[in-house]
Design a protein that fits this description.
The protein is of the alpha+beta class and 206 residues long. It has helices at residues 27-30, 34-37, 48-54, 61-78, 80-83, 92-122, 142-169, 172-192; strands at 8-13, 16-21, 40-45, 132-139, 198-202. It has a 5-stranded antiparallel β-sheet. Strand 1 (8-13) and strand 2 form a beta hairpin. Helix 4 runs antiparallel to helix 8 (172-192), helix 6 (92-122) packs parallel to helix 8 (172-192) and helix 7 (142-169) runs antiparallel to helix 8 (172-192). The chain is elongated and about 60 Å long.
Length: 206
């Protein structure tokens, strides 16, 4: 990935370097296997100085998502004894509205963060001036495919439990869990294009 910019990746194919934006379109990150099923636009980097300025960093995304998932699950069980004292006396309809508003805030915060990353990148290079190619991203091993599938299933499954639990009870802790796990779902796209765990090839070649 590009250092301090989780939104971007640098993919090397036959000695050529391509910059891809995994934050656009954002729905690919929500769709299971979205970045593996659909081609991604790559901006070809020819200037070695620009490539050095981007400071390609090591893979940390999947580890962070795994850690955050574990922390979220652990906290949900740890806080369980006090959860009954944090129920809001609201109806299911109102709880649904509150949940929708909270998830919308998380989504727009994520999109805003992506926008800031894009603005920071434009200070280094103008991607509109670069030649583009359609790239195909695939996992290097079956183990990475299994790990991603497991993490995605766990995160989505727990998210559904938290969503339904909050709508039924109006519990504040469950609302915080809903927001946290929805954010994790948004980050799952980064695992699909994890450095050293995936590879890229030109879409118009076999």
């Amino acid at each position: 990935m590009v250092k301090k910019k989780l939104r971007y990746r640098v993919v090397t194919i036959n000695g050529d370097h391509y910059l891809i934006d995994i934050g656009y379109p954002f729905w690919k990150g929500l769709l299971p296997y979205g970045f593996w099923l659909f081609p991604q636009t790559g901006f070809r980097l020819k200037d070695e100085k620009v490539l050095n300025d981007l400071e390609v960093a090591k893979n940390e995304g999947s580890g962070k998502v795994t850690t955050l998932t574990g922390i979220g699950v652990g906290l949900s069980f740890f806080l369980r004894p006090i959860m009954d004292h944090l129920n809001m006396p609201t109806s299911r309809i109102l709880n649904g509205v509150i949940l929708l508003f909270a998830l919308t805030v998380i989504l727009f915060s994520h999109l805003y963060y992506n926008r800031i990353n894009k603005e920071n990148l434009t200070q280094i290079l103008d991607v509109k001036q670069l030649k583009t190619e359609k790239l195909v991203i695939r996992p290097k091993s079956i183990s990475h495919f299994v790990i991603y599938t497991f993490l995605y299933t766990v995160i989505v499954g727990l998210s559904i439990l938290f969503f339904t639990g909050f709508i039924e009870s109006g519990n504040i802790i469950l609302l915080l869990c809903c927001m946290s796990f929805f954010y994790l779902i948004l980050l799952c796209g980064a695992i699909m294009v994890a450095p050293h765990k995936t590879y890229g090839k030109l879409a118009n070649t076999n």
